[in-house]
Amino acid sequence: MEQTQTKRIVPVNRIILGITGGIAAYKAAELLRLLIKQSMEVQVVMTEAACHFITPTTMQGLSGKPVFTDQWDASVPNSMAHINLSRAADAILIAPASADFIAKLAHGLANDLLSTLCLARNCPLIVAPAMNREMWLNAAMQRNIAQLIADGVQVLGPDNGVQACGEEGMGRMLEAEQLAQDVLAFFQPKLLSGKKILVTAGPTYEAIDAVRGITNRSSGKMGYAIAQAALELGAEVTLVSGPTALAKPQGAQGVDVQSAAQMFEVVKQHVGSCDIFISVAAVADYRVAQPSAQKIKKSVSNVALELVPNPDILAYVASLPKPPFCVGFAAESENLAEHAEQKRRSKKLPLLVGNLAQHAIGSDDNELVLFEDSGSHILPRANKLTLARQLMQHIAHRYKGASN
Ligand code: CTP
What we know:
The chain has helices spanning 27-37, 56-63, 81-87, 99-107, 113-119, 133-137, 139-150, 176-186, 221-232, 260-271, 313-318, 336-346, 357-360, 384-403; strands at 3-5, 14-19, 41-46, 91-97, 125-129, 154-155, 159-162, 168-172, 196-201, 206-207, 213-214, 236-241, 253-256, 276-279, 286-288, 307-309, 325-332, 351-356, 365-372, 375-383. By secondary structure, the protein is α/β, with parallel strands linked by helices. It folds into 2 domains: 3-186, 3-Layer(aba) Sandwich (Rossmann fold), CATH 3.40.50; 196-403, Rossmann fold, CATH 3.40.50.10300. The strands form 5 sheets. It has a 9-stranded mixed beta sheet with strand order 1-20-19-18-17-14-9-12-13, sandwiched between helices. It has a 5-stranded parallel beta sheet with strand order 3-2-4-5-6, with helices on both faces. It has a two-stranded antiparallel sheet with strand order 7-8. Residues 6-10 have low confidence and may be disordered. The structure holds cytidine-5'-triphosphate. Residues 260, 279, 281, 283, 285, 310, 312-314, 328-331, 343 line the site of cytidine-5'-triphosphate.
């Protein structure tokens, strides 16, 4: 079978990073670095107050471009920096957004370059508030934020925690890493809007007695990343999860289960209305025939467990009279291509995603191989959320192709 390496076509998103006056401005340097790392083209614009906290020289050095700070910049030939800059942007991100700047946005003020280009924009505006907790809770601030949300501005954060002033509460700017992820999510094309996706994730737990059970080393990270990536594409996501230590992605409908039998019941309840079923869970193939309701005592010298097969959830869904678009996963320890392709055919799947278990379990990174009728191709090693985004875009295109 022919195996190819997928070319990653990464569209360049152009973003204005607006920095206003607040101690969190120091985080803007790291944020800029992360946005550029995600292949974004970033133009920095700073208010005068921001320049008291971090220098334009730092931001110019990191972005490789002059930083705009002045509405009356004589180097701009047509003296219309606010129009030129906002027309050349796909989005504007204000991070940190001070209380003063949020108030300006809420009231449509335009008395410096950054506020003027926000008013003149024809692209989305994202703000990441950062301020003292009392300022954040102030009724005027809450009114202003509510106004921004009503105006269609996307508000990221703030976070709860210890503040630069030593007080503790809501008002910290989100960390640069989180903001960079949120901005990347914002730019994902809404290929699956209005579609329902059912994802299973994590291990299952098959009880032996009241306190012991059989499980496996699946962390659930890949399934949760896929649920997150599907949400970013605009889908409605139900995430059926075995026991994990992970928080459900915001916006997903989460259903927690323990055993394969419970997972099967939940999948059967939801599968009728779903468009795509992605079976990432490491479902136990066997369960204990008669688990003991009480803890088994060690006074018994030999214990033999009788195991009986669990239902194959994915095979059941794929063989329904009108199945959703089904995607399977296979973690193999050897002969990946042979085993994965054999699994794909036996379960009658349009797409099976294979990986080597020893490369994936518990790790934040992975490498995936996609097996389809047309052959197989590799999604090269990357962190699981990056891979999940690539995979979900691929699934969205395949789903559209199959349903046309
Ligand atoms: N799967 C499932 N229900 C099961 C077993 C597996 O839905 N009882 C799904 C998994 O979520 C995965 C795919 O089937 O998408 C392949 O799982 P895997 O355990 O690798 O394959 P098996 O068919 O169980 O084969 P084997 O364990 O022999 O490798």
